[in-house]
Amino acid sequence: GPYGPGVASGGGAISAPPFSAVEAQRRTQIRAARKAELLRRWVQSAIPNLAPGTFTSTTLDAAAAGRGVLSASAALKPCLRYMAERIGNADDAGALRLFLPVMRMIEGVLGRLFLERTRGGINEMVDQGNNRAGDSLRASCIKFLEIVVLCFSNRALPGLAAGSQAAIRMAKNAKASAHDFSLEDLPPGHPIITREGLEEIGEYCFSTLRGLVLLGGQAAIDPNLLLAAAASSSVGSAFGGSSPFTPILDILKPAALAFLKIESTAEKAGAESGEKGSFILDRSSIELDFGLSQKSYSLSINAVQMLATKRPVFFKDSSTCLARRSIDPPGGSTGAADGSLTKAAVTGIRTHLRSSCLTLLRNFLSVTSGCWEALANALNASGMKAQADRALQSSRQQLNLMKGGRAARNRAAVFYEWDTSADDSRAAKRKRDTDDAETRVREAKMARGLGSGIQLPTSMVDACELVMLNLENLPPKRPPVASSTPRKHPIDLEFVMDAVITNGASLSIDENHWYDRDGGDAWTMEEGEIGEDGKRALTFTMSSKVLEAAEKSTQGAQLGESEKAFTEQSNIAASKAFSRVLMASSNARSEAVADFGKQLAARLAWTLKGVKPSTEIEKANEMAVEATENSLKRNTECEETLAGSLEFALDYPLVSSCLAFDLVQKGPSSQPRDDAGSNVAASSTSSLSMRILNEAYVCSLNENKENYEKALDVFVSSVVNACDLSNKMPNDSEKKRIANAAASSLPQQLAAAPAVTRTALSLVGSLCDIDEISKKATAKSSKHTIAESAALHAAKAAAEKRATAALLILRDVAFQRDAMRGAAVDCAVAIAAGRMPGSPPIEDKALKLVMNVIFPKNSDCADKVVESATKELELATRFCIDNYEKITKANEANAKKKEKPRHGIKAALLPQSDEEKMALDRVRKPVVLTMALCVRRPDIIKAIMEMSCREGADILAKAVKTNMPKLTKAASVKHGAANIALRVSDMASERETPLLLSFLDNLAPATDKSLPSQELIDACHEIQKNRPDADSRYIIPIVSGMKRDQLVHKLPEFVRSSDSIFKSSLRRMAERLGRYVLIFRDEPDPTESTLRGMSSCEQMVYLHHLDFHNVGIPQKRYLDVIRLCLEDDEVFNDRVVQAALDHMSGKFLEGESLPLAYMRTIILTCSKHESLHSWICHVLLPRLVEGSVYTDKRQWEGWMRCAKMLENTRDHGVSSLEAIQKLPEEQLKMYRAKYPQK
């Protein structure tokens, strides 16, 4: 009822109606179902509010999302407790029905916090307009992060014994808090809702919270990762087949890893400094997606502090984070306003950080976890040493009491008393200290003179009053200067105003530097009379001494001491003026002003030859010189040209500084950036480097024609050096940004350049040398952290992108600049051929660029590609010839170490030593490139064959034979096997016969299902006929496709050949007849020959029946080839020999005569194959007796010898005695007369 079971409205107790256990279970199930439906609807109502774009107004959208976040925060713990209850009751489906909406709800909240930058939502609105609704939404999301970490983490204290007092105390506290939830409350066993998956989400959320506290905002995330996460985020939709954790991790991982990368870099920098526990964080180089307001910052600090006390597993990391931020708080050492934080907000946050550190230091976990030292150092740095000491003493005392026994705790309870030393005297002392500090500040402000400069108020009236009031504060003596020469100007109002305007800088100027004093004595001004228009004429005149020194310096005359000083100071003045112009143009917001400054800087840089750069741009000059030196070491082929470029960089320091100005790190406010992180002013035609090059090209039309080429080499070298520095330091985001911006703009800049040189293209090809960073990224090392591995992979991807841009530059030059087409093609072919260093993926891209893009463009491009590929093949040939002796010696030394050399065609093509393997790797790529061109132009095959057959080019020939299958397959498809075979035969000379044979051998199909076509068979016969030697090797590749009766007629040719050719022919005849190896096939139609090839059994039969007298073969050669077959155990094994002998003996019984070598083969078989003794004794010899073998004198003699060999082998279980007993009486006597029985 409405008042509970058994309770009426009047308060009188009545007995409840009895119900069974089944009814109780039913009611419990209904109650659980209602609870689940209520929670599900609660979650479902929160999800639509979290979807972006609920309202077109950003304020209303933020307000709706804020209500959704609050609803999600309130619903998370009840939902998790209900899911734990369902899992505990083995209702996995019921838990999953609520789990999926909860995961979508979490995804929606995280998306509103981290993905709004990509969506252009709350983060952008807060950063631009300081919107209250947006800030409230962010604060609510941070509070939700805290709840997620609290629920998705373990409550247990790591390393604490189960029965200790601390464990019992924490267990009591956990039971007392009924609303708390942790991973211990989640029962195991569910296939999807696992502790490991939830714990991973909690750890990433905690890392994100630490990043918010330590950085004051969210570290910048790669926009590509944000776009991917935003695309995969589907609030309110099903997860599909992926894991429910995947969308959440796609949002959290990039946010957490962005902070972890910065943290690891700072820890590494602190470790390199040598100070214990040092943490060096360069905040000027850190980009933030959004910054925290005072409210969000306070919530983040509270969250980290609460997690440290509620979840001991996070205590050490939380303490370290708060301590580091307390040492390096917002506002720096002065406590000034920081970004969107006002000075009052900064003060509040700093106080909050110190109080949080003090609270954690009082906890006994600070001692057990070992982080008390970091907390104490942070408080000491803030002037709270006394409070830190008392807090540490309290935590140690608390830990000792927890470890101690009952008696110690009782004594502590008895003798504990409050510290009453803080009486009124403390308040009075604090007030005195405050008053004294204010007094000192006032005195310092009043006594502040002009020596340190004055920050003038914005109002001119107030500024003038401040100047007049401070006249009396001027010191009686002027401050000392570096020079001993007394100052020339007296202290007057002009002197004071100059000091005020320059913020005190004019007081430290050495007046010997005339250029620092508005010209000083170099210029004089004379005032004329007032004209009719009411204006006074002013005349500026240069000092005659200065003018004379300038004329001598220009004419190269001998200078005196004062004139030398003037020249040096003029150069310094010009350098500083130039740097001011350059820095002003780079920082100008107006494009017109920036462009004018670049034009002026370009003209001045070429005019001021030999002038050293100032300190502001000195790094750019050093980088340009270093880059040219590195290019000189790397590109030995262009050594002479690059040596001149290095000399040019030293002669024109300002020019080289301008060329590398955009490639060095500058301050964070040096240039505005666009969304992609590149410089807005880096236009391809209006950039500073292009202005310099254009100026050089115009001047080169009249004189100094080499200056443009040298300047271009220095510029490209600087870009390559910037990319190399980015590869060497993958964790440096600024260097990565500079390298990516330079490489991405280089194609446009070179396209807009007046001319391009061969050396510049060779330097562009150096961008493809990314093998080192590729190996680092792919190497598996346990020393690398997750952040370091991610940085390496990102650096590898960026390097590959820059290398691809270099290939595009070569493509554009080949297509657009006819004069440099050959140089661009040479460079691309060199990369594809491996002569210029590059990673394997880039070499593959270069090969595709050459073959699929440049070659088909037009005939001229095709001719250039063929010419370049031929050059590369020629270089590979020279390399093989030069290293022939070295490789031969290495192969011989390696052969001595091996017991059994490898045989076979494939083994012959394998490298025999490490030196040969390296040489094969060197020449393989140009061979593959040239073979790819051979498919388009078969005439190039002649060049490959000619170079491969040179004396000493054995390695090249081996590489060609190894890759010959690819060539023959592609060429036969494009031109036809028969056609290409005849064309290659016409090209090949007698010396190139081995490669022709290899070509023909690979041209025939090697599969069992396809036989050589009749056209190819006819072509090979024609080749054999047309060749001078008429060698039978030309038809060996196609014997498997020839008819058997044709092979029978060709068999004498193979017998006449050498042993290797003979064995190769037999192997090719039977290569597609593996299933018929033991069979002598009969023609289906005796009138027509259809069988192709010749099985091993058939080969043995036809060899025995060979009429060697009629074909002119000596009997010795006839017997030798049969012996060669018997010795080849791999092909002609005992079963093949048995099948052949059995077939011939069967034909003998049918009336055919036995071959001449038949009995000789049986005798050799008895000696070689003991496994056939039984068959010979019991089957073959009696069969021969049955066929009257004794009628043939020669065969009868062989039969008796064979029977004698096997007669006395009864000990082995085999004897020919049974066959001997079957002889007729006369032949038996004849046998016993010759071989008496023992």
Structure description:
The protein is mostly helical and 1238 residues long. It contains 54 helices and 4 strands. α3 crosses α10. The longest helix is centred in the N-terminal third of the chain and has 31 residues, at 58-88. The protein is flat, with a radius of gyration of 47 Å. The termini are far apart. Mean pLDDT is 80; it is low at 1-15, 121-130, 234-241, 414-424, 448-454 and 668-682.
Describe what is shown at a glance.
With 1238 residues, the protein is mainly α. It has 54 helices and four strands. The strands form two sheets. The chain has a two-stranded antiparallel ribbon with strand order 1-2. The protein has a two-stranded antiparallel ribbon with strand order 3-4.
In percent, how much strand structure appears in the residues? Answer: under 5%
Number of strands: 4
- Biggest sheet, strands in spatial order? 1-2
Cα distance spanning the termini: 121 Å
Low-confidence stretches: 1-15, 121-130, 234-241, 414-424, 448-454, 668-682
Structural shape: flat
How would you state the average pLDDT, rounded? 80
User: Which structural class should the secondary elements be placed in?
Assistant: mainly alpha
Major β-sheet profile: 2 strands, antiparallel
As a whole number of angstroms, the C-alpha radius of gyration is: 47 Å
Indicate the multimeric state. single chain
- Give the helix proportion (percent range): 55-70%
Counting H and I runs of at least 4 residues, what is the number of helices? 54
